[in-house]
Amino acid sequence: MPEYKLPDPGEGLTEAEIVSWKVKVGDTVKINDIVVEIETAKSLVELPSPFAGTVSAILVPEGETVEVGTPIIAIGDGAEAAAPAAEAAPPAAEAEPAAAEAEEAEEPPMKTLVGYGPRTVEARRRPRKGSVTPSSEAAAATQMQVQGAFAPGGAQSQPVVEGDEPAVPAHSARATSGDDATNVQVLAKPPVRKLAKDLGVDLRSVTPTGPNGTITRADVEGHVEGGTAPAVEPAEAPAAPVMARAGERETREPIKGVRKMMGQAMVESAFTAPHVTEWITVDVTKTMKYVEKLRSHRDFRDVKVSPLLVVARAVCLAARRTPEVNATWDEAAGEVVFKNYVNLGIAAATPRGLVVPNVKDADSMSMVDLAKAVNALAGTAREGRTQPAEMSGGSFTITNVGVFGVDAGTPIINPGESAILCFGAVRKQPWVHKGKVKPRDITTLALSFDHRLVDGEKGSRFLADVAAILEDPANSLMF
Protein backbone atom coordinates (compact mmCIF):
# COMPACT_ATOMS: atom_id res chain seq x y z
CA MET A 1 0.00 0.00 0.00
CA PRO A 2 1.62 3.32 -1.05
CA GLU A 3 2.72 5.59 1.77
CA TYR A 4 3.03 9.31 1.12
CA LYS A 5 6.29 10.49 2.62
CA LEU A 6 6.73 14.07 3.81
CA PRO A 7 8.44 15.90 0.92
CA ASP A 8 10.63 18.98 0.84
CA PRO A 9 8.40 21.65 -0.74
CA GLY A 10 11.44 23.41 -2.15
CA GLU A 11 13.18 25.32 0.64
CA GLY A 12 15.79 22.86 1.93
CA LEU A 13 13.32 21.60 4.50
CA THR A 14 14.49 19.06 7.07
CA GLU A 15 11.33 18.81 9.17
CA ALA A 16 7.79 20.15 9.37
CA GLU A 17 4.80 20.16 11.70
CA ILE A 18 1.53 18.54 10.70
CA VAL A 19 -0.96 21.38 11.21
CA SER A 20 -4.22 19.95 9.93
CA TRP A 21 -5.45 16.99 7.93
CA LYS A 22 -7.91 17.75 5.14
CA VAL A 23 -8.97 14.11 4.76
CA LYS A 24 -9.89 11.23 7.03
CA VAL A 25 -9.71 7.47 6.84
CA GLY A 26 -12.08 6.17 4.20
CA ASP A 27 -12.08 9.32 2.06
CA THR A 28 -11.46 8.93 -1.65
CA VAL A 29 -8.80 11.27 -3.04
CA LYS A 30 -7.57 12.10 -6.50
CA ILE A 31 -4.13 13.18 -7.62
CA ASN A 32 -3.51 16.83 -6.64
CA ASP A 33 -6.28 16.85 -4.00
CA ILE A 34 -5.07 18.72 -0.91
CA VAL A 35 -4.67 16.20 1.90
CA VAL A 36 -2.66 18.00 4.60
CA GLU A 37 -1.43 21.41 5.70
CA ILE A 38 2.07 21.60 7.16
CA GLU A 39 4.06 24.34 8.83
CA THR A 40 7.64 24.61 7.63
CA ALA A 41 10.43 26.88 8.79
CA LYS A 42 9.03 29.60 6.55
CA SER A 43 5.34 29.20 5.88
CA LEU A 44 2.17 27.16 5.86
CA VAL A 45 2.09 24.81 2.89
CA GLU A 46 -0.77 22.69 1.57
CA LEU A 47 0.42 19.37 0.16
CA PRO A 48 -1.41 17.64 -2.70
CA SER A 49 -1.86 13.90 -2.88
CA PRO A 50 0.59 12.14 -5.20
CA PHE A 51 -1.73 9.10 -5.29
CA ALA A 52 -5.32 8.39 -6.27
CA GLY A 53 -7.27 6.02 -4.08
CA THR A 54 -8.79 5.62 -0.63
CA VAL A 55 -7.19 6.90 2.57
CA SER A 56 -6.42 3.83 4.64
CA ALA A 57 -4.46 5.37 7.51
CA ILE A 58 -3.29 8.70 8.90
CA LEU A 59 0.21 7.90 10.13
CA VAL A 60 1.12 11.17 11.87
CA PRO A 61 -1.30 13.07 14.13
CA GLU A 62 -1.83 16.81 14.02
CA GLY A 63 0.63 18.88 16.01
CA GLU A 64 3.52 16.45 15.60
CA THR A 65 6.81 17.49 13.97
CA VAL A 66 8.42 14.90 11.72
CA GLU A 67 11.45 14.76 9.46
CA VAL A 68 11.34 14.87 5.67
CA GLY A 69 10.91 11.37 4.29
CA THR A 70 8.67 10.18 7.12
CA PRO A 71 5.49 8.38 5.94
CA ILE A 72 2.52 10.53 6.94
CA ILE A 73 -0.46 8.93 5.19
CA ALA A 74 -1.29 5.64 3.48
CA ILE A 75 -3.52 5.63 0.41
CA GLY A 76 -4.82 2.38 -1.04
CA ASP A 77 -6.42 1.64 -4.38
CA GLY A 78 -9.87 1.27 -2.83
CA ALA A 79 -10.03 -2.51 -3.25
CA GLU A 80 -10.34 -2.97 0.49
CA ALA A 81 -13.41 -0.78 0.61
CA ALA A 82 -15.06 -2.74 -2.21
CA ALA A 83 -15.04 -5.96 -0.24
CA PRO A 84 -18.24 -6.61 1.73
CA ALA A 85 -17.84 -5.63 5.34
CA ALA A 86 -19.61 -8.74 6.56
CA GLU A 87 -17.45 -11.16 4.60
CA ALA A 88 -15.95 -13.74 6.93
CA ALA A 89 -12.19 -14.20 7.14
CA PRO A 90 -10.88 -17.31 5.34
CA PRO A 91 -9.71 -20.25 7.41
CA ALA A 92 -6.13 -20.12 8.59
CA ALA A 93 -5.18 -23.00 6.33
CA GLU A 94 -6.39 -21.08 3.30
CA ALA A 95 -5.12 -17.72 4.47
CA GLU A 96 -1.48 -18.79 4.68
CA PRO A 97 -1.16 -19.87 1.02
CA ALA A 98 -3.02 -16.76 -0.06
CA ALA A 99 -0.68 -14.62 1.98
CA ALA A 100 2.30 -16.40 0.46
CA GLU A 101 0.99 -15.72 -3.03
CA ALA A 102 0.41 -12.08 -2.17
CA GLU A 103 3.96 -11.95 -0.82
CA GLU A 104 5.34 -12.91 -4.20
CA ALA A 105 3.07 -10.55 -6.17
CA GLU A 106 4.13 -7.02 -6.81
CA GLU A 107 1.96 -4.13 -5.74
CA PRO A 108 -0.37 -2.88 -8.49
CA PRO A 109 0.84 0.31 -10.13
CA MET A 110 -0.66 3.49 -8.74
CA LYS A 111 -1.29 6.73 -10.53
CA THR A 112 1.07 9.22 -8.97
CA LEU A 113 1.78 12.90 -9.27
CA VAL A 114 4.69 13.37 -11.65
CA GLY A 115 7.86 14.37 -9.83
CA TYR A 116 6.26 13.78 -6.42
CA GLY A 117 6.13 10.93 -3.95
CA PRO A 118 8.32 7.85 -3.63
CA ARG A 119 10.82 6.78 -6.23
CA THR A 120 10.02 4.11 -8.77
CA VAL A 121 12.20 1.49 -7.15
CA GLU A 122 10.38 1.97 -3.89
CA ALA A 123 6.95 1.87 -5.51
CA ARG A 124 7.68 -1.57 -6.98
CA ARG A 125 9.08 -3.03 -3.78
CA ARG A 126 7.22 -6.12 -2.57
CA PRO A 127 5.56 -6.04 0.85
CA ARG A 128 7.75 -7.11 3.71
CA LYS A 129 6.94 -10.20 5.71
CA GLY A 130 5.25 -9.49 8.97
CA SER A 131 4.75 -5.86 8.17
CA VAL A 132 2.63 -4.16 10.77
CA THR A 133 -0.44 -2.31 9.62
CA PRO A 134 -1.87 0.56 11.64
CA SER A 135 -3.74 -0.73 14.66
CA SER A 136 -7.45 -0.37 14.95
CA GLU A 137 -6.90 2.16 17.71
CA ALA A 138 -4.67 4.36 15.57
CA ALA A 139 -7.01 4.02 12.61
CA ALA A 140 -10.00 4.99 14.71
CA ALA A 141 -8.12 7.96 16.11
CA THR A 142 -7.83 9.38 12.65
CA GLN A 143 -11.59 9.71 12.39
CA MET A 144 -11.26 13.10 14.08
CA GLN A 145 -11.35 15.82 11.44
CA VAL A 146 -9.86 19.25 11.69
CA GLN A 147 -12.45 21.53 13.25
CA GLY A 148 -12.71 25.26 12.44
CA ALA A 149 -10.37 27.46 10.48
CA PHE A 150 -6.66 27.44 11.24
CA ALA A 151 -5.47 30.71 12.66
CA PRO A 152 -1.95 31.56 11.50
CA GLY A 153 0.46 31.47 14.39
CA GLY A 154 2.39 28.27 14.87
CA ALA A 155 4.06 29.83 17.88
CA GLN A 156 1.54 32.10 19.54
CA SER A 157 2.17 33.82 22.84
CA GLN A 158 -1.53 34.35 23.52
CA PRO A 159 -3.92 31.52 24.39
CA VAL A 160 -6.45 30.49 21.81
CA VAL A 161 -9.74 32.33 22.32
CA GLU A 162 -12.97 30.48 21.83
CA GLY A 163 -14.85 31.80 18.83
CA ASP A 164 -18.29 31.10 17.50
CA GLU A 165 -17.41 27.80 15.91
CA PRO A 166 -20.01 25.12 16.59
CA ALA A 167 -19.09 22.29 18.88
CA VAL A 168 -18.41 19.29 16.69
CA PRO A 169 -18.87 15.67 17.76
CA ALA A 170 -15.98 13.32 17.18
CA HIS A 171 -15.87 9.56 17.41
CA SER A 172 -13.95 8.09 20.26
CA ALA A 173 -10.24 7.74 19.56
CA ARG A 174 -10.32 4.29 21.12
CA ALA A 175 -11.78 1.51 19.03
CA THR A 176 -13.91 -1.03 20.81
CA SER A 177 -14.65 -4.59 19.97
CA GLY A 178 -17.17 -7.17 21.02
CA ASP A 179 -20.92 -7.21 21.29
CA ASP A 180 -21.02 -4.26 23.69
CA ALA A 181 -18.87 -1.97 21.54
CA THR A 182 -20.13 1.61 21.41
CA ASN A 183 -19.07 4.76 19.66
CA VAL A 184 -18.58 7.36 22.37
CA GLN A 185 -18.96 10.95 21.20
CA VAL A 186 -18.00 14.23 22.87
CA LEU A 187 -19.00 17.78 21.98
CA ALA A 188 -16.29 20.44 22.18
CA LYS A 189 -15.15 23.42 20.16
CA PRO A 190 -11.80 23.25 18.34
CA PRO A 191 -9.95 25.53 20.84
CA VAL A 192 -11.14 23.32 23.69
CA ARG A 193 -9.95 20.21 21.86
CA LYS A 194 -6.54 21.82 21.37
CA LEU A 195 -6.35 22.74 25.06
CA ALA A 196 -7.25 19.20 26.06
CA LYS A 197 -4.62 17.81 23.70
CA ASP A 198 -1.93 20.13 25.09
CA LEU A 199 -2.81 19.20 28.67
CA GLY A 200 -3.07 15.48 27.95
CA VAL A 201 -6.74 15.27 28.86
CA ASP A 202 -9.05 12.62 27.40
CA LEU A 203 -12.25 14.53 26.61
CA ARG A 204 -14.32 11.40 27.20
CA SER A 205 -13.40 11.56 30.88
CA VAL A 206 -14.46 15.21 31.29
CA THR A 207 -17.92 16.04 32.65
CA PRO A 208 -19.57 18.59 30.31
CA THR A 209 -21.38 21.63 31.72
CA GLY A 210 -22.01 23.57 28.50
CA PRO A 211 -25.21 23.75 26.45
CA ASN A 212 -26.37 20.42 25.02
CA GLY A 213 -23.59 18.56 26.79
CA THR A 214 -20.75 20.63 25.29
CA ILE A 215 -17.38 20.48 27.04
CA THR A 216 -16.05 23.98 27.81
CA ARG A 217 -12.58 25.31 28.55
CA ALA A 218 -13.52 25.59 32.22
CA ASP A 219 -14.52 21.92 32.23
CA VAL A 220 -11.08 20.89 30.96
CA GLU A 221 -9.19 23.17 33.34
CA GLY A 222 -11.34 22.05 36.26
CA HIS A 223 -10.71 18.43 35.32
CA VAL A 224 -6.95 19.07 35.45
CA GLU A 225 -7.07 20.99 38.72
CA GLY A 226 -9.11 18.20 40.24
CA GLY A 227 -6.29 15.78 39.55
CA THR A 228 -8.48 13.42 37.58
CA ALA A 229 -6.66 13.68 34.27
CA PRO A 230 -5.71 10.22 33.02
CA ALA A 231 -2.10 9.34 32.49
CA VAL A 232 -1.00 9.95 28.93
CA GLU A 233 0.78 7.17 27.16
CA PRO A 234 4.35 8.08 26.12
CA ALA A 235 3.48 7.76 22.43
CA GLU A 236 0.77 10.41 22.78
CA ALA A 237 2.61 12.80 25.07
CA PRO A 238 3.25 16.25 23.53
CA ALA A 239 6.83 17.07 22.68
CA ALA A 240 6.77 20.21 24.82
CA PRO A 241 4.20 22.21 26.78
CA VAL A 242 2.55 24.78 24.57
CA MET A 243 0.23 26.60 26.91
CA ALA A 244 0.38 27.42 30.62
CA ARG A 245 -2.20 25.74 32.81
CA ALA A 246 -4.66 27.82 34.78
CA GLY A 247 -2.97 29.77 37.56
CA GLU A 248 0.58 29.30 36.33
CA ARG A 249 2.83 32.37 36.18
CA GLU A 250 4.79 31.42 33.08
CA THR A 251 3.94 30.24 29.60
CA ARG A 252 6.28 28.15 27.47
CA GLU A 253 6.02 27.55 23.76
CA PRO A 254 8.31 25.56 21.46
CA ILE A 255 10.72 27.43 19.21
CA LYS A 256 9.76 26.19 15.77
CA GLY A 257 8.55 27.16 12.34
CA VAL A 258 9.02 30.77 11.25
CA ARG A 259 10.24 31.90 14.67
CA LYS A 260 13.00 29.30 14.72
CA MET A 261 14.11 30.07 11.18
CA MET A 262 14.05 33.82 11.81
CA GLY A 263 16.17 33.48 14.95
CA GLN A 264 18.79 31.36 13.23
CA ALA A 265 18.95 33.67 10.21
CA MET A 266 19.28 36.85 12.27
CA VAL A 267 22.06 35.38 14.43
CA GLU A 268 23.91 34.19 11.35
CA SER A 269 23.58 37.58 9.66
CA ALA A 270 24.47 39.65 12.72
CA PHE A 271 27.64 37.70 13.43
CA THR A 272 28.73 37.15 9.82
CA ALA A 273 28.20 40.44 8.00
CA PRO A 274 29.80 43.58 9.49
CA HIS A 275 26.76 45.84 9.85
CA VAL A 276 26.87 49.60 9.46
CA THR A 277 23.75 51.76 9.85
CA GLU A 278 23.25 55.30 8.55
CA TRP A 279 20.29 57.60 9.14
CA ILE A 280 18.66 60.48 7.32
CA THR A 281 15.63 62.62 8.13
CA VAL A 282 13.52 63.54 5.12
CA ASP A 283 10.76 66.03 4.32
CA VAL A 284 8.26 63.83 2.45
CA THR A 285 5.46 66.37 2.12
CA LYS A 286 5.56 66.18 -1.69
CA THR A 287 5.53 62.39 -1.57
CA MET A 288 2.40 62.40 0.60
CA LYS A 289 0.70 64.73 -1.91
CA TYR A 290 1.85 62.45 -4.74
CA VAL A 291 0.33 59.46 -2.96
CA GLU A 292 -3.01 61.26 -2.76
CA LYS A 293 -2.87 61.97 -6.50
CA LEU A 294 -2.17 58.32 -7.24
CA ARG A 295 -5.15 57.25 -5.14
CA SER A 296 -7.45 59.38 -7.26
CA HIS A 297 -5.93 58.22 -10.55
CA ARG A 298 -8.11 55.91 -12.60
CA ASP A 299 -5.35 53.28 -12.94
CA PHE A 300 -5.19 52.97 -9.14
CA ARG A 301 -8.95 52.94 -8.59
CA ASP A 302 -8.96 49.42 -7.13
CA VAL A 303 -5.37 49.39 -5.85
CA LYS A 304 -4.24 50.29 -2.36
CA VAL A 305 -1.61 53.05 -2.47
CA SER A 306 0.64 53.96 0.44
CA PRO A 307 3.93 55.84 0.89
CA LEU A 308 5.64 52.43 0.97
CA LEU A 309 4.97 52.18 -2.78
CA VAL A 310 7.01 55.32 -3.45
CA VAL A 311 9.79 54.05 -1.17
CA ALA A 312 9.85 50.75 -3.07
CA ARG A 313 10.10 52.58 -6.38
CA ALA A 314 12.83 54.85 -5.04
CA VAL A 315 14.89 51.87 -3.89
CA CYS A 316 14.69 50.21 -7.31
CA LEU A 317 15.82 53.40 -9.03
CA ALA A 318 18.60 54.24 -6.57
CA ALA A 319 20.00 50.70 -6.80
CA ARG A 320 20.88 51.36 -10.44
CA ARG A 321 23.45 53.96 -9.36
CA THR A 322 24.76 51.89 -6.45
CA PRO A 323 24.59 48.22 -7.51
CA GLU A 324 26.58 47.13 -4.46
CA VAL A 325 23.45 47.41 -2.29
CA ASN A 326 21.83 44.79 -4.51
CA ALA A 327 24.67 42.28 -4.46
CA THR A 328 25.70 39.16 -2.54
CA TRP A 329 28.98 38.30 -0.85
CA ASP A 330 29.82 34.73 -1.91
CA GLU A 331 32.33 33.60 0.71
CA ALA A 332 32.76 30.10 -0.70
CA ALA A 333 33.54 31.29 -4.22
CA GLY A 334 35.42 34.39 -3.13
CA GLU A 335 33.24 36.55 -5.35
CA VAL A 336 30.81 39.44 -5.17
CA VAL A 337 27.65 38.61 -7.12
CA PHE A 338 26.06 41.69 -8.70
CA LYS A 339 22.40 41.17 -9.63
CA ASN A 340 20.90 42.76 -12.70
CA TYR A 341 17.44 42.62 -11.16
CA VAL A 342 15.82 43.70 -7.91
CA ASN A 343 13.84 41.06 -6.05
CA LEU A 344 12.41 43.46 -3.50
CA GLY A 345 11.63 41.97 -0.10
CA ILE A 346 8.97 43.54 2.12
CA ALA A 347 9.35 42.46 5.75
CA ALA A 348 5.98 41.53 7.23
CA ALA A 349 5.17 40.86 10.88
CA THR A 350 2.69 38.01 11.24
CA PRO A 351 1.35 36.07 14.25
CA ARG A 352 3.77 33.30 13.26
CA GLY A 353 6.80 35.61 13.22
CA LEU A 354 8.63 37.79 10.74
CA VAL A 355 8.54 36.76 7.09
CA VAL A 356 10.11 38.51 4.10
CA PRO A 357 8.33 37.69 0.83
CA ASN A 358 9.80 39.43 -2.18
CA VAL A 359 8.49 40.90 -5.41
CA LYS A 360 10.39 39.31 -8.27
CA ASP A 361 11.89 41.79 -10.80
CA ALA A 362 10.35 44.75 -9.01
CA ASP A 363 12.66 47.14 -10.89
CA SER A 364 11.04 46.26 -14.22
CA MET A 365 7.44 46.81 -13.03
CA SER A 366 5.19 49.80 -13.54
CA MET A 367 3.90 51.63 -10.48
CA VAL A 368 0.51 49.95 -10.84
CA ASP A 369 1.97 46.46 -11.11
CA LEU A 370 4.37 47.10 -8.24
CA ALA A 371 1.49 48.29 -6.04
CA LYS A 372 -0.56 45.21 -6.85
CA ALA A 373 2.39 42.88 -6.19
CA VAL A 374 3.23 44.50 -2.83
CA ASN A 375 -0.41 44.38 -1.71
CA ALA A 376 -0.75 40.75 -2.75
CA LEU A 377 2.35 39.71 -0.82
CA ALA A 378 1.24 41.63 2.26
CA GLY A 379 -2.21 40.05 2.19
CA THR A 380 -0.81 36.55 1.78
CA ALA A 381 1.66 37.11 4.62
CA ARG A 382 -1.07 38.28 7.01
CA GLU A 383 -3.03 35.11 6.25
CA GLY A 384 0.05 32.99 6.90
CA ARG A 385 -0.08 31.58 3.37
CA THR A 386 3.23 32.84 2.01
CA GLN A 387 4.84 30.11 -0.09
CA PRO A 388 8.56 29.22 0.07
CA ALA A 389 9.17 30.42 -3.50
CA GLU A 390 7.92 33.89 -2.52
CA MET A 391 10.55 34.15 0.21
CA SER A 392 13.58 32.88 -1.67
CA GLY A 393 15.87 34.78 -4.01
CA GLY A 394 15.46 38.23 -2.44
CA SER A 395 18.12 40.84 -3.22
CA PHE A 396 17.10 43.89 -1.12
CA THR A 397 14.67 44.34 1.76
CA ILE A 398 12.49 47.15 3.09
CA THR A 399 11.13 46.99 6.63
CA ASN A 400 8.30 49.42 7.35
CA VAL A 401 8.31 50.11 11.09
CA GLY A 402 6.29 53.28 10.53
CA VAL A 403 3.05 51.28 10.55
CA PHE A 404 3.70 50.70 14.27
CA GLY A 405 4.32 54.40 14.96
CA VAL A 406 8.07 53.83 15.30
CA ASP A 407 10.43 56.48 13.94
CA ALA A 408 13.34 54.23 12.93
CA GLY A 409 15.61 51.39 14.00
CA THR A 410 18.79 49.52 13.15
CA PRO A 411 17.57 46.61 11.01
CA ILE A 412 19.55 43.40 10.55
CA ILE A 413 20.35 42.48 6.96
CA ASN A 414 18.43 39.57 5.51
CA PRO A 415 20.92 36.68 4.93
CA GLY A 416 22.22 36.58 1.36
CA GLU A 417 21.66 40.32 0.82
CA SER A 418 23.89 43.32 1.36
CA ALA A 419 21.51 46.02 2.62
CA ILE A 420 18.13 46.69 4.21
CA LEU A 421 16.20 49.96 4.45
CA CYS A 422 14.09 50.86 7.48
CA PHE A 423 11.18 53.22 6.75
CA GLY A 424 9.92 55.08 9.81
CA ALA A 425 6.66 56.78 10.68
CA VAL A 426 5.58 59.90 8.78
CA ARG A 427 4.73 62.67 11.25
CA LYS A 428 3.74 66.32 11.07
CA GLN A 429 6.69 68.24 12.52
CA PRO A 430 7.99 71.81 12.48
CA TRP A 431 10.47 72.11 9.60
CA VAL A 432 12.33 74.97 8.00
CA HIS A 433 10.90 75.29 4.48
CA LYS A 434 11.84 78.21 2.22
CA GLY A 435 13.24 80.12 5.18
CA LYS A 436 10.17 79.68 7.38
CA VAL A 437 9.22 77.16 10.03
CA LYS A 438 6.19 75.23 8.81
CA PRO A 439 4.44 71.97 9.68
CA ARG A 440 5.73 69.36 7.21
CA ASP A 441 5.49 65.60 6.79
CA ILE A 442 8.75 64.21 8.12
CA THR A 443 10.14 60.68 8.23
CA THR A 444 13.41 58.96 9.07
CA LEU A 445 15.21 56.40 6.92
CA ALA A 446 17.84 54.01 8.28
CA LEU A 447 20.04 51.95 5.99
CA SER A 448 21.98 48.96 7.32
CA PHE A 449 24.56 47.55 4.93
CA ASP A 450 27.28 44.93 4.76
CA HIS A 451 30.55 46.85 4.99
CA ARG A 452 32.34 44.12 3.04
CA LEU A 453 30.41 45.10 -0.09
CA VAL A 454 29.22 48.62 0.63
CA ASP A 455 31.62 51.21 1.99
CA GLY A 456 30.50 54.42 3.67
CA GLU A 457 30.59 56.49 0.49
CA LYS A 458 28.39 54.07 -1.48
CA GLY A 459 25.98 53.54 1.40
CA SER A 460 25.62 57.30 1.86
CA ARG A 461 25.11 57.88 -1.86
CA PHE A 462 22.36 55.28 -2.05
CA LEU A 463 20.57 56.63 1.03
CA ALA A 464 20.81 60.19 -0.30
CA ASP A 465 19.35 59.09 -3.66
CA VAL A 466 16.35 57.43 -1.98
CA ALA A 467 15.84 60.53 0.18
CA ALA A 468 15.98 62.80 -2.87
CA ILE A 469 13.17 60.89 -4.59
CA LEU A 470 11.04 60.98 -1.45
CA GLU A 471 11.63 64.71 -1.03
CA ASP A 472 10.38 65.25 -4.58
CA PRO A 473 9.11 62.31 -6.67
CA ALA A 474 9.92 64.33 -9.79
CA ASN A 475 13.59 63.63 -9.06
CA SER A 476 12.96 60.06 -10.18
CA LEU A 477 13.20 61.35 -13.77
CA MET A 478 16.90 61.93 -13.12
CA PHE A 479 17.60 58.20 -12.60
Q: Which blocks of ≥5 consecutive residues have pLDDT under 50?
A: 80-184, 228-243
Domain count: 3
Strand percent estimate:
15-25%
Distance between the termini: 62 Å
Number of distinct helices: 12
Mean pLDDT across all amino acids: 75
The assigned structural class equals alpha+beta
By CATH, the architecture of the largest domain is named: 2-Layer Sandwich
Rounded to the nearest angstrom, the radius of gyration is: 28 Å
The strand count comes to 21
Shape summary: elongated
> So, the CATH homologous superfamily of the largest domain?
Chloramphenicol acetyltransferase-like domain
* CATH topology-level name of the largest domain: Chloramphenicol Acetyltransferase
Helix content percent band: 25-40%
Main sheet? Answer: 8 strands, mixed
CATH uppermost class of the largest domain: Alpha Beta
